[in-house]
Amino acid sequence: MCRQFSACSLLILVLLCPLSGQSPAELAKLVPASGSGGSTSAGAEVLAFERALEAAVVRGDVAYVDSISAPDLTFTHGDGWTRGGKPLLVDDRKAFLKRVEDKVYNVRDLDSVKVEMHGDIAITYGRYVAQSRTGAPGRMWFSVWFERVYAKRDGHWLYVSHRTVHGPTYGPDRQSVSDR
Fold it and tell me: Percentage of the chain surpassing pLDDT 70?
C-alpha cells in the first residue's frame, strides 16, 4: 500500500508542477523513491518521471532536463536504422539540450506508453504526439513510436537513451491510439 501511495503521490505532484511553481525535481523530493525491481510502484515512478521530462522539454526547462540526463545521453531521430539505413539524426546530450533551450516543441504528449523494469534500469516504449514550433506546413504535427532507457543512479532516475522505432509520421491527427 505504501509503495502504491508513493507512486500515486509522485504522479499527482508532477501533474501539479505548473500550478505549484515548483520544478518536478523539487516536488519529486517530497515523495520517497520506491525500491528497485519490477514493482508496479517503480513502473509508475518511471512513467511519472517520463511525463515530467516531456513537460520540461516543452517548457524549455534546460536546467531540469540537464539534471536528469545521463552524460552519455543519445537521442536517435527517425526510424531509417530499423531497415538497415541511417537515422534522420542522432543527438548527444549537448544537442538535445540545445533543442530544449530553443523550445522546438509546442506539444509532446505521451500515448500508449508501457514500462518494463529491470532493477535499476527501466525501458519504456510507446508513442508521443508532437507539434513543432517551426515545422513546414503539413509537418508541424507528427507522431513517433519510441523506446527509451532510464537508469537509476544514486537514487535518482536518469534519461539515458531515446530511439525512434517508427516515424516520424506527419499529419494533423493528434488523436490518441486508445481513442481509435
Answer: 73
